[in-house]
Each structure stands twice: as structure tokens, then as C-alpha cells.
Specification:
little secondary structure; two-stranded parallel sheet; 5% strand; Pentapeptide-BTB/POZ_domain; 5peptide_repeat; Pentapeptide repeat-containing protein
Length: 399
């Protein structure tokens, strides 16, 4: 019978405990200890706080949503491992091989990742007791989207091409780290130590940076808003295809799907962008007045200074967007009924930066403002009544 909380059988848990105990003996040099090879094992949703897995082979192992707080994972091989939603707070990952691992939504607060390798991982014909050789090469970049790395130690770590979209690295130490080609879109780097950090080719659109960090980058010739593709006249061609897709209800044309594109100052007023996917894009100072963004997804995009006055943002996904100094005056942020869902789909501004933004909308219902920063924003009762503001920084006065 499987454990209701973890889904693992009692026999499986007993086997894992036996192998973990044997590995612990191996680490401390006790007789009878054997180095653990738990590659491709399912160790998800397990209480593993303080576990000793130093130098263990954990290729492709799933620790999704497991508690690994204070775990000893020094020099462990976690290539292509699944750690989504795991708690790794204060864990020791010194010198660990984390290439291609997935840490999306994981808690790595105060973890030690000094000297860790977080580059893109490639897994070839690996043969273990759990995963016979298939001869297929699998490659993926290391993912840390929305991960909590506050106060983490990343000294000398290699984060080349790593995806840190929306991650929090407040007061983290990145001294000597290599972030070449890393994606740092909407990443919070406030208070982070960037001494001798390599940022060549890194994408920093919408990242939170201290004045010292901005000055350091300017000295090195790094533009935080650079390294995004400029669409130029091709944008209007894509918009025409999207309109055709909408008019034909998906039978022809093509849905607008953009990622890491430069749309700064784009003239998008009165344009129908409903159901468009425009993630991680630079929309700084864009004109979106009167546009239709119903059920669109603008997550992680930089909309600082953008004008969305009178726009329809009902059901729009705007997680971790930067709307600093923007305007949503007279906009509509209603929830949208979707199919058989019991609850309508709300406008989502979770973790959004809304500093000094004009949020005096015309109508709103059930807006998600969890953990959003509304410092200096102008709001009205139309927005605030019925909105979920748990964990949000609210303005002291209303407009």
C-alpha cells in the first residue's frame, strides 16, 4: 500500500532508508558503508531534511517537492535531477554537479552553491539499475525559474546559460560567478554581490538591480535591456496573423507567441492581443492604450513606463511583470468564465512591481495581487475591493 502523502510504498521507503544509511556510513568511513547510486529514483515529496548525500550519484533523480533543508549534498552529481518546488534552504551544494537540473519554484534560501556547476546538461547513454541505457541524448539548460536564492552563496559557481527567470537573489553572493548567457529576466538581484561576476551575453530585462550594479554594468558596457531580439517591421506581420487567428477562431492565421523579444516603445494601442503569449519581453514605454489583452499572458515582461490606459486586462496573466511608472488608468481587470472551471479566471499580478503605477481602473474583480509591490501606486476601491492582497506591499494612500 502506498503512503497517502508521498505515493511511495512502505517497501520502497524501507529500501531508500537502507541505502541512505549505507551511504552515510560510507561518508564517515564506517565499515559496511557503500556509496549511493540513486540515479533515476523517485524520491519526491519525502521528508529528507538534513540527509547526507555527499558525493552521491543522483543523475535524473526526482526530489520534486521534497524537504531537503540543511541537506549535505556537497559534490553530489545531480545532473538532470528534478527538484521543482523542493525545500533546499540552508542546504550544502558546494561543488555539486547541477547541470540540467530543474529547480523551478524551489527554496534555496541561504543554500551554499559555491563552485557548483549549473551549466546546460547533456545526458547520453547512461545505464543504471533504474534506467537502462537507451542511447538517446537529452540536453536542457538548468532551470531556476521563480526559485528563492535569497542570501545564497554562489561564489565561483558556473551558471552559464542558466534560466533564472523571476528568481530571487536578494543579498546573494555571486562573487566570481560565471553568468555568461544566463537569463535573468525579472530576477531580483537587489543587494547581491557581483564582484568579478561574468555577465557576458546575459539577459537582464526587467531585473531588479542596485545603483552600484547598474554603474558596474555600464562601466563594462553591459546594457541591462540589451540582448533581446528586435522584431522591427516583422511585428506588424505577426499581429496580422494573430488577428486572422482570432477572426477565424483558430482555423487559420497564427496565435502571437513571443519570448525574449524587444517591444520597447511599440505602438500597440487599440490592438486586439487577446489570448496572445508575450512572455519575458521588453515592453518599456510601449503604447497599449485601449488594447484588448483579455486572457493574454505577459508574465515576466518589462512594462515599466508603459501606457495601458483603457486596456482590457481581464484574465490577463501578469506574474512578476515590472509596471513601474506605468498606467492602468480606466482599465478593466475582471475575471473571465472559462469552460467548466468552477471559478472564473482572474487577472494575475502576483509578485508584480507596481511602484508609482496609476492603478485607478474602471472595473475589477478578484484580481490576484499576492506579494505585489504597490509602493507609491495610485489605487481606487474598484481595484482593491475583492482583490487578493496577501503579502503585498500596499500604498499608504489611495488616489
Amino acid at each position: 500500500m502506498s503512503h497517502p502523502a508521498t505515493g511511495h510504498s512502505a517497501a520502497y521507503i524501507a529500501e531508500l532508508k537502507k541505502r541512505l544509511n549505507s551511504h552515510r556510513k560510507w561518508v564517515i568511513g564506517t565499515r559496511g558503508g557503500v556509496q549511493a547510486d540513486l540515479s533515476f529514483y523517485d524520491m519526491s515529496q519525502l521528508p529528507l531534511g538534513g540527509v547526507v548525500l555527499r558525493n552521491a550519484k543522483l543523475v535524473g533523480t526526482s526530489f520534486a517537492r521534497s524537504n531537503l533543508s540543511r541537506a549535505d549534498l556537497k559534490a553530489a552529481v545531480l545532473m538532470m535531477a528534478e527538484l521543482e518546488g523542493a525545500d533546499l534552504s540552508q542546504a550544502d551544494l558546494l561543488g555539486a554537479d547541477l547541470r540540467g537540473a530543474c529547480f523551478n519554484g524551489a527554496n534555496l534560501a541561504e543554500a551554499n552553491l559555491a563552485g557548483a556547476d549549473l551549466r546546460t546538461g547533456s545526458l547520453g547513454a547512461v545505464s543504471t539499475r533504474q534506467q537502462p541505457s537507451a542511447g538517446t541524448v537529452v540536453s536542457r539548460r538548468t532551470e531556476l525559474m521563480d526559485a528563492n536564492l535569497n542570501r545564497a552563496i554562489l561564489v565561483g559557481s558556473n551558471l552559464g546559460n542558466c534560466d533564472l527567470t523571476g528568481a530571487e537573489l536578494v543579498d546573494a553572493d555571486l562573487s566570481g560567478a560565471d553568468l555568461t548567457g544566463a537569463i535573468l529576466v525579472s530576477t531580483d538581484l537587489s543587494g547581491a554581490t557581483l564582484k568579478n561576476t561574468t555577465l557576458t551575453g546575459a539577459v537582464l530585462s526587467g531585473a531588479v538591480l542596485d545603483a552600484d550594479a547598474v554603474a558596474r554594468m555600464a562601466h563594462l558596457g553591459i546594457n541591462p535591456d540589451g540582448n533581446l531580439e528586435s522584431l522591427g517591421e516583422r511585428l506588424f506581420e505577426l499581429l496580422a496573423h494573430h488577428q486572422e487567428w482570432l477572426d477565424s477562431e483558430g482555423r487559420s492565421g497564427q496565435r502571437l507567441e513571443l519570448d525574449l523579444a524587444d517591444l520597447s516603445d511599440a505602438p500597440l494601442g487599440e490592438v486586439d492581443l487577446s489570448a496572445a503569449k508575450i512572455q519575458r519581453c521588453n515592453l518599456r514605454n510601449a503604447n497599449l492604450t485601449g488594447s484588448n489583452l483579455m486572457m493574454a499572458d505577459l508574465s515576466y515582461s518589462n512594462l515599466s513606463g508603459a501606457d495601458l490606459s483603457g486596456a482590457n486586462l481581464s484574465g490577463c496573466g501578469m506574474r512578476r511583470v515590472n509596471l513601474t511608472g506605468g498606467s492602468l488608468r480606466d482599465s478593466v481587470l475582471l475575471s473571465v468564465p472559462v469552460g467548466d472551471l468552477e471559478r472564473p479566471w482572474p487577472t494575475n499580478l502576483q509578485y508584480a512591481r507596481l511602484n508609482d503605477c496609476d492603478l485607478r481602473c474602471r472595473a475589477a474583480a478578484g484580481v490576484i495581487l499576492r506579494h505585489a509591490d504597490l509602493t507609491g501606486a495610485r489605487v481606487n476601491m474598484a481595484l482593491m475591493k475583492g482583490s487578493d492582497t496577501s503579502g503585498a506591499r500596499l500604498p499608504t494612500t489611495r488616489g
